[in-house]
Amino acid sequence: MRVAIIGTGYVGLTTGVCLASIGHRVACLDTDQTKIAALKNGKIPIFEPYLEDLLADSQHNLEFTSSYAEAIPGAEVVFIAVGTPPTPSGAPNLEFLSQAARSIGEHLDNDFTVVVNKSTVPIGSGNWVESLLRDACEQRSDRRGPEFAVASNPEFLREGSALHDSLYPDRIVIGADEPRALEVLYTLYRPILDQTFPAPTYLPRPETVSAIPLVSTDLASAELIKYAANAFLALKISFINEIGLLAERVGADISEVGRGIGLDSRIGPRFLNAGIGWGGSCFGKDTAALIATAGEYGLHLPIVEAARKINCRQRDRVVEKLLHELKILKGRSIGLLGLAFKPNTDDLREAPAIEIAQKLIDRGVRVKAHDPIAAERFCREHGKIGVQLCRTPYEVADACDALVLVTEWNEYRDLEWECMAKRMRNPLVLDGRHALDREKLQRAGLRYLSLC
Ligand code: UDX
User: Fold this and answer.
1) Which of 67, 143, 186, 397 could make an S-S bridge to 420, C-beta 3.0–4.6 Å?
2) Which of 281, 283, 339, 371 most suits a substitution to test ligand 1, by most atoms within 8 Å of the C-beta?
3) CB of 341 closer than 6 A to ligand 1?
4) 278 lies in the same domain as 324
5) What is the pLDDT of residues 72-83, one digit of tens each?
6) What percent of the chain has pLDDT over 70?
């Protein structure tokens, strides 16, 4: 099928490359011509494992453009995957979405086109996008007006494993109030639903994956599924972090508690890793948007609000712990291991490291940091904070009064901790992710603390 993708960010680029890899002809559009020029040369603007490989293997089915006149005519499916960044009120900024909808409406030219909201959009946006498309079509000279329908197809991909989550998803959710739209999307996703596409060698099909469940529902339900899923995942993390507070008081091991409850098939073991908590562009934005949408209906969501409050508190607890251990923070040197909001990405959006660094600097601390991938982006985007970036974790340790593990990159687990201890002024490590081996660090001469 012929597909157009509007927006080549994490979601749009991943979706476009995956659909091209399973045989569809995909035109990816972005108004950022620099990004498009790089993509035409096979260079991707984000760090996502294997995305550049899959792009190279699928380039015969891919084209990149900044022109709606090139991308839209003839497309049977148009995905809107533009940013919907949060506004101060928590409601998402829909400026990019409305611009994309209008431009699509002006260029639609096919018997029937399904316009799909792939970006996370407020519940009810499907109808709003449809009205924008209708308006744009009505202003065209050819009054016949193309046939189209709007659908929702929320993404559930995690950065760092975006391709795996796209090719081998737990489920595909499509929402539309028009049956024809659901049929078109079913055809589009058939190779993934039936897992009949040839698996890339570098992204082998997991043995446990066979047919993929399809949730085919109405627009509002599909839009709410996305928000409810992210809110629940965020809540699960905040829940284990709240229990971690009590575990610390009673001398329990929160990792053991997480393991013990996670073995219950009704709870499940994932997203129960206690520590600094969540960052990233989704959980914070989507929980805020959900609360804002509820507010429009005069509703409060105390559970979702509590998840956000607990998550914010975890960052403060890093500073409180360091203050308790070091008594005085002013003039101290503290090193952060990891800057990205999670491993295997260079994404710094809502990264806990940024807020923690700022809080420490505000208290007169000299902050040093290392990140194997995100350091360059940190320098570009947050160079003004005043963090001293180091080339290696050992450089971070030099003359430091404490180290904080903020992002659990694998390389930090295998450091020469004896060497780290010798280089530090005060051999103290605060493990913000329960990712380090307590006994190993203690044998290396370090005082080991966990966040909860
Ligand atoms: C998330 C959702 O998982 C995905 O379905 C959605 O489409 C986009 O948002 P992502 O933000 O890429 O994906 O990362 P994820 O792996 O979910 O982690 C989010 C945050 O939670 C990270 O900061 C991570 O460090 C933190 N986390 C995750 C925990 O603190 N504990 C855990 O057990 C798991």
Assistant:
1) 397
2) 283
3) yes
4) no
5) 999 999 999 998
6) 99
